[in-house]
Amino acid sequence: KYAHENGCPWDKRTCLFAAYYGHLDCLKYAHKNGCPWDERTCWSATKRGHLECLKYARERGCPWNEFTCQSAAKNGHLECLRYAREHGCPWDATTCACAASKGHLDCLKY
């Protein structure tokens, strides 16, 4: 908030990093104040297992793609993977390969 109010520029990476580090309050502030986001915001949230950031972004129209599921599977975040699939996020065979390559059997079985 301080940085933004004092003229610090932001872009899509602002939301990406807020989601990646699980800073839901920063993600909310940025979004409410017009900061852009893209599918990398969702991907970043699943990479570190930040389900609340993922939910916030998706419930407000942030786009996602198969990389969201791949990231969740590769990093063993079953709850993120489950949420994404139950809400229509696409996945492909690479999602299974990502889970298998890192030994995340629960994600692979899902």
UniProtKB/TrEMBL annotation:
SUPFAM superfamilies: Pseudo ankyrin repeat-like. It comes from the Eukaryota. It holds the Pfam family Ank_4. InterPro entries: Ankyrin_rpt (IPR002110), Ankyrin_rpt-contain_sf (IPR036770), SecEffector_AnkRepeat (IPR052050). This is Ankyrin repeat protein. It comes from Ostreococcus sp. 'lucimarinus'.
